[in-house]
Amino acid sequence: MPKAKGKGRRHKYSYNLNRKRLYRSARRRAAPRIACSHIRHAWDPSKSVAQNLAEMGLSGDPNKALPIPKKMPGMEVESNGQQPGKKIVLKPYVVNEMEYEASLPEKKSNTLSRDLIDYVRYMIQNHGENYKEMARDEKNYYQDTPKQIKRKINVYKNFYPEEYKNFIASLKPEKMDVQ
């Protein structure tokens, strides 16, 4: 079957098109993305990034905020009693609110999938602590080895210790009734 006409030809590069101007104008229009709401509310779009951050008491360059001393630690530095480059913070509430948010305790958001929880509970309920038997079970769809199953059970124990204790306690009466 013959090829379609014109498809084997190379496309020509246009040397006259100024691509730099296109990218530069798109970059200039984009406003800076600010993740923190405190900074977003205190931001003044008429000022530069460095000016805005300086007003809030923040630093754009971590090397300038905490400079590495160029002298050896044993050498003494003479000072006149004045602090060079002392900056005035006009919006200290931004830093205070950010420090308060950082001091709040972190929520534990790690959870296990419902499928994994059901799988572990099924294995413990039917096989107890026998991991080799669990590996041969027909519900072991992913063909986990005994060590992998043991690891999954330990993860479940660490994530939900109270639920695991209650589950084990509910299994003991059933085992007594069988014997």
From TrEMBL:
GO terms (BP aspect): ribosomal large subunit biogenesis
This protein's GO CC annotations: nucleolus
Record Pfam families: Nop16
UniProt KW keywords: Nucleus
Start and end residues of each stretch annotated as Disordered: 1-21
Compartment(s): Nucleus, Nucleolus
PANTHER family reported in the protein's UniProt record: HSPC111 PROTEIN-RELATED, NUCLEOLAR PROTEIN 16
Similarity remark: Belongs to the NOP16 family.
Name used for this protein in its record: Nucleolar protein 16
Organism (species): Sclerurus mexicanus (tawny-throated leaftosser)
The gene coding this protein: Nop16
